[in-house]
Amino acid sequence: MNYIIKTDKGKYRKENQDNASISFLGDWSLVVLCDGMGGHYGGSLCSFKTIDFLFDFFQKRFDKNINFDDKKSINKWFNAALSFIKKSLKKIANDNNDYEEMGTTLTAALVFNLNKETYIFNIGDSRAYAYNGLLHQVTIDQNLLHQLVDKQNVDIEIAKLHPDANKLVSCLGPNKTMKCESFLLKGEENLKYLLLTSDGVHDYIEKPVIEQILQDKKLSIELKCQKIINVAKKNASKDNLTVLLLEF
Fold it and tell me: Residue ranges of the PPM-type phosphatase domain (predicted)?
């Protein structure tokens, strides 16, 4: 199993508030991407610390011998990890009031390396995609746009016109409203790639274009990642850009 992480500050941001990384334990891998909230002090710190706290909890509190199809126990573990992260972020905010409103997205994939069984967890509007010859978006953006469409049956083209369409309705932070959604990719689904992206990427490149890049056998996984970022930047991305590509 190979992986590549590419991140770019972009043309318009003063700092890169995205973070992505991977941690290994026994036959398991945990890949994570976080996008710190722009416009709030501490976005970069929040995304960095969230990954740091999650990996610490993974290394110390995850049972590497757990059965890969024990969905209940794995979800219970991740919920405990989120509680640990939130408590740790609250401590940072209590020590420095400037960090009270910091927040981040969190998209994580827990992979059983022996059969590709993959548990995906999502908070916010970063994304996970699965590729098996075709590209499939796994996660659902937790923003006002999808809340209007899914819960209020507003036509998506009308919802896109809302001035706060991209506003998050769920994120991770010391004082943020959070909803974690989970998804399961079965090992027999013939996964070739798992792709995590921040919104600075997927808001500025169409899904079919990403699919074509992943289908190009002439490109290494590193060049695939770089091309995805380059296209998004060419399309005038105004945000930080991060791609994590896992090759099975």
Answer: 2-248
